[in-house]
Protein: Spermine synthase isoform X1
Organism: Drosophila lebanonensis
Amino acid sequence: MAAQTILFDFTLDTLKTADAKQRQEVVKIVRNELEHVFPQLELAYQLSMEDGYFAVLEENKDTIITCRIFQQGLLTINVEYYLADGKEPLMSFDTMRTMELILRQKLDSDRSKYLPPIKRGGYIDIYMTSSDERIIEYDIDSLVYEARSPFQKIQIMHSKTLGNMLILDELQNIAESDLIYTETLMGRGIENYEGKEICILGGGDGALLYELLKEKPKHVVMLEIDELVMQACNKYLNSICGDVLEKRKTDQYEIVVGDCVEYMKKFIAEGRKFDYVFGDLTDIPISGAPIGECWDFIRTILEHSFMLLKPDGKYLTHGNGTTCLESLELFEEQLRLLKPKVKFTTSKAFVPSFMEEWLFYQVTFA
């Protein structure tokens, strides 16, 4: 159950929206057509403005329709009502499409568009955003798991096409469909992990650890702060993490639960070195300048990671969506400021659950 919001847009000749008289003709056409679907429609409020017109119509005091005419030649119609579980929607897709086509013809609109119902306030949130803040609607049909750890809100939702998805603080992290994400992050087929010592920063979903162990490394240590994330993924995402989250220590790997920065400092003090360090932590922030807590954290991770790498070692991490050019450039500036100097390459992959192309970094000493 959720509020349903259906949106219609029509581009009109500005002669039809230029003055109050012309706008009233548009309103008359719109209302006549709406009454075919909503026969008990009544005008609740209207406002004429210098540059347009606004009206609120209602049916049975539970369906609200707003109509806005802009002097510049734009008409918007919003239909909103509450749809309870088990009830049929007030407007089918065929009805929406038919209304759009009829109004387009009667208004002589050269361009029109309707959007299927936006579902707001439901038990399951099916909307998330891309890295560049475009709205994505997922085919989520159930909430599999939800909890709040001391660090974040954790959800696992099921998508009809993507499988189970890990959502942290309302942001998609990984889904059963996302092997390409892990393989691109680790450079499968390019990097040779056999006999190597590896450190993973973050990686609580277990996918990276699971795939790395297939490459026969000497040993992997994973530093993850959130025990609850690992428990949830072990139970509901074992198709991507196998059984690696069942144990915290084996001959092949060790999972350390705690603040990765503190353990990195400990490893540095001990003189411990790795062939590979993976930054599987926060995404590069979307911001106009590299300032704030998140950027400070990224700089700390970079500085400490290179203190842990062997001279021929490599730091591998994910960046952000390839459309976030400004933020990616800010991150690359941070790489150029590192001492000793480093060099980097990038790779990219379309990640199914992100519904966009993602950039990955491979960084070595220059």
User: Anything to note?
Assistant: The chain has nine helices and 19 strands. The longest helix spans residues 20-37. The chain has three domains: 2-120, 127-174, 175-365.
